[in-house]
Write a structure and sequence with these properties.
Blueprint lengths: L8 E4 L4 H12 L4 E4 L15 H16 L3 E10 L20 H12 L6 E11 L5 E12 L15 E3 L11 H7 L1 H13 L3
Parallel strand pairs: 1-2, 1-3
Antiparallel strand pairs: 3-4, 4-5, 5-6
Helix pairs in contact: 4-5
Bound molecules: inosine 5'-triphosphate and magnesium ion.
Magnesium ion binds next to loops.
Organism: Gluconobacter frateurii NRIC 0228
EC number: 3.6.1.66
Cofactor: Mg(2+)
């Protein structure tokens, strides 16, 4: 498998401001330089797969082919056990056309009804794609519980309604470095560094 060498430049194939913030902190300690898909005006491909890995490949390949640079994409979501894993790959779409995450959280809460099963997890698939079509994906998970009402001002997306296992605070009540240390994205990123970057 091909690895990124130190000093490489890659495209970060995401249009989500919260993810981009977390990646810029995660990447700060590596020698990798990043440019975002937005900065390059790359179009957002349709996420037509029904798995996180499948959608991460679609996004990474589209950006790598359009830019001629290796591209790293993230497809992630919130999986609620009482909802058989929903919203899952539809996590962004549950916020409607404007991806309003307050709407999305309320929809999850409403669908959960009176259930006593509060188990939930976040999943992130990261895919590194090369302009010639080679791809490599890694997956990270973080297990915990849903919380209602939502709490905290940090983070993004569903963070205010998720409390990771062993914690009293929600992701949105943690600072970014605390979240990155245990999050689905932080875990997937550690695998990405190990498997895809020369050390
Ligand atoms: O596809 P890109 O451009 O990366 O941006 P997106 O927001 O559409 O991202 P996804 O398709 O991967 O959808 C992921 C959804 O899951 C939510 N999500 C992902 N990671 C999260 C995290 O760490 N904390 C809270 N919510 C998260 C996020 O808000 C989105 O609604
Ligand atoms: Mg998306």
């Amino acid at each position: 498998m091909r690895r990124l060498s130190r000093g490489s430049k890659i495209v970060l194939a995401s249009h989500n401001a919260g993810k981009l913030r977390e990646f810029s902190t995660l990447l700060a300690e590596s020698d990798i330089t990043v440019v975002s898909a937005g900065e390059l005006n790359l179009p957002e491909p349709e996420e037509t797969a029904d798995t996180f890995v499948g959608n991460s490949e679609i996004k990474a390949l589209a950006a790598a082919r359009a830019s001629g640079l290796p591209a790293l994409a993230d497809d992630s979501g919130f999986c609620v056990s009482a909802l058989d894993g929903q919203p899952g790959v539809y996590s962004a779409r549950w916020g409607g056309p404007t991806k309003d995450m307050t709407v999305a959280m309320e929809r999850v809460h409403r669908k959960m009804g009176e259930t006593t099963d509060h188990g939930a997890s976040f999943v992130a698939a990261l895919c590194l794609a090369w302009p010639d079509g080679e791809t490599h994906s890694v997956v990270g998970e973080c297990h915990g519980q849903t919380v209602w009402p939502p709490r905290g001002e940090h983070g993004h997306g569903y963070d205010p309604m998720f409390r990771p296992e062993g914690e009293t605070r929600t992701f949105a009540e943690m600072d970014e470095s605390e979240k990155n240390a245990i999050s689905h994205r932080g875990r997937a990123f550690a695998l990405f560094l190990k498997e895809c970057v020369e050390n």
